[in-house]
Amino acid sequence: MNLFSKIIWLVFALIFAGCSKDDFDANSPSGLVAEITNGEGETISRYSYNKKQQVTESWHTDIAFPHNEKQHYTYIYDNSNKLTGKKGYEPGIIYMSSMTGASGKDVDYQYSYDDKGRIKSIKTDYDYNIEGWVNADYSRLSTFEYSDDKLVTMTVSTIDPAGNSIPGYSKYYYNDKGNIEKTTDNVIIDDKERIISQAVFTYDTMNAPHYPDPGPVSKNNVLTRTETSYNYNEAEIMSVAYTSVFQYEYTYNDYGYPLTQVETYPNEIKNSKQFKYVKQ
């Protein structure tokens, strides 16, 4: 983390220290997530809002982050109160083998929208401070196309330091209830489309919490997530590499938003979360 990031994080710490937990309410009808704690009661995410109930700052922690580092952001709005970007710091991931994957970086997200108010593009700039690495910085551009009410295609281009563009895209398939029932991750190799993985979801009928970041979202809460990865042989015939099933259980507040979530991994390990929302 460079000096600028350390200063920003100190400012965040002072801001959040002044946020009273009296502003949080697990039984709020707002659905705006204010705090998430884990099964040990430790805070793992915190969101701060202004009087317009817009997120202004947030921080998040994860066991994959090194040295107890936190991911943190400030959020930027235009004169029409549209979220146009966020800036902050993202720690490296301790189990990543690449230098950039394992290293922290300053980030700058920029959002644009179509004439229907839907997300049109997300440009992300990654600024590393790795000693001896002059060309570690890169950018990623995600663009969204809406074929109809039930299909959203996100195309991702990563611009590396050499100026190369490595394209890939994901498809989000919606059902009639406004939930993403399937996603696929795709690549094009030798002008042929290949699905490299897919995820299939089932849902409850209750309200999903509201998060600030724009993009494809579901109205209800996921009950099961079945992930499948694929291999291709020399004849380009697809086969299943592996399938993993994740299961979710919830308790709810009086307004249908989750109070608790228990995620069960394929190896039967469980991960618990508790939610608090902005008072309304």
Detailed description of the structure:
This protein is mostly beta strands and about 280 residues long. It has one domain (about 5-280): Porin (Beta Barrel). The protein is about 5% helix and about 55% strand. It has 2 helices and 17 strands. The chain has a 16-stranded antiparallel barrel with strand order 2-3-4-5-6-7-8-9-10-11-12-13-14-15-16-17. The chain starts with a helix and ends with a strand. Residues about 5-20 have low confidence and may be disordered.
Tell me the Rg in angstroms: 20 Å
Total strand count, please?
17
Oligomer: single chain
CATH topology: Porin
From the N-terminal CA to the C-terminal CA, the straight-line distance is: 37 Å
Report the CATH architecture.
Beta Barrel
Tally of DSSP helical segments: 2
Which H/E pattern describes the elements? HEEEEEEHEEEEEEEEEEE
Number of domains: 1
List the defining traits of the structure above.
disordered N terminus; 16-stranded antiparallel beta barrel; Porin; mainly beta
What is the topology?
Layout lengths: L2 H15 L6 E2 L7 E6 L4 E7 L5 E6 L10 E7 L5 E8 L8 H4 L2 E9 L5 E10 L9 E11 L2 E9 L5 E10 L5 E10 L2 E12 L18 E11 L5 E15 L5 E7 L5 E9 L2
Antiparallel strand pairs: 1-17, 2-3, 2-17, 3-4, 4-5, 5-6, 6-7, 7-8, 8-9, 9-10, 10-11, 11-12, 12-13, 13-14, 14-15, 15-16, 16-17
